[in-house]
């Protein structure tokens, strides 16, 4: 049977009988709540500790790449923001901080909603304002003010799937128009000509979670690919602005030398990409109760995407984006 367009997103994550609405959809799930989920008593008591939420935005440009996120892991909050200079292959600014939940971090339970991290004078804030998402970064390392046009609902990928503890949901956008500027190191970087993308995730995940990930978007073409806690449930390519599901993806890279080229292929033949890193953001934290080890290379993708329905080939040439190899104990 030939692949078809993804069905419309359901009204909630959990059906009335406490069963998750597992599937991959187009659109936005308006009610992001797991409270109706049927769980054994032990899991109900520990659910809050496994509830992980984040809001992420990326800005891809020929000269630079910016990534920013606010994260709530249930018992702690964190945020990061960085600017990578693609011309010089240098990480010019990198902010990474941890704080207490509720006190430092607040996330709204809706896709592309409000999210805030504050610690001292440092602040990262997403604000849902009509048809746009306003993003402000005010840290010593990086400052940014951006307006991101929110995506049309039928261009959004929504996935609800079993995960390594219970279940997870995510919303991903394709390339979005944005405006504004970033400042670091005495330089100002205009966001004109950027392609922004968004990731709003909300789930019940295991304390020990690993994944590999790749994402890049420009104009009507893009992809979000993962191997890890959601299996292939969020693997999608955007062709002419429409998200299509693709199968399981293999990430072939040298963990000892992650700045060497990566090869990324899907088992259904829809994805065949070569990723050439230009540099990376990386971290190795051990906070006793929690730890994270990751590398997030920034670079270019080349290769091709194949339409799952028509078989038409879409060349990918020098598409700016990011990959990641991540292990968290959270």
Show unreliable segments: none
**Tally of contiguous helical segments:** 1
Instruction: Give the strand order of the largest sheet, numbering strands 1, 2, ... along the chain.
Output: 19-18-17-16-24-23-22-21-20
In CATH, the homologous superfamily goes by the name: AttH-like domain
> What sort of overall outline do the alpha carbons produce when their principal axes are compared?
globular
Which architecture per CATH? Beta Barrel
The percent of residues in helical segments reads under 10%
Mean of residue pLDDT? 95
Organism: Vogesella oryzagri
Protein name: DUF2804 domain-containing protein
Pfam families: DUF2804 (PF10974)
Structure description:
The protein is mostly beta strands and about 325 residues long. The protein has one domain (about 50-330): AttH-like domain (AttH-like fold, Beta Barrel). About 5% of the residues lie in helices and about 60% in strands. The chain has 1 helix and 24 strands. The chain has one helix at about 40-50, and strands at about 25, 50-60, 65-70, 75-85, 90-100, 105, 115-120, 120-130, 130-140, 145-150, 155-160, 165-170, 180-185, 185-190, 195-205, 210-220, 220-230, 235-240, 240-245, 250, 260-265, 270-285, 290-305, 315-330. The strands form 3 sheets. It has a 9-stranded antiparallel beta sheet with strand order 19-18-17-16-24-23-22-21-20, with no helix packed on it. The protein has an 8-stranded antiparallel beta sheet with strand order 1-11-12-15-2-3-4-5. A hairpin with a 4-residue loop joins β4 and β5. The longest helix has 10 residues, at about 40-50. It is globular and about 55 Å long.
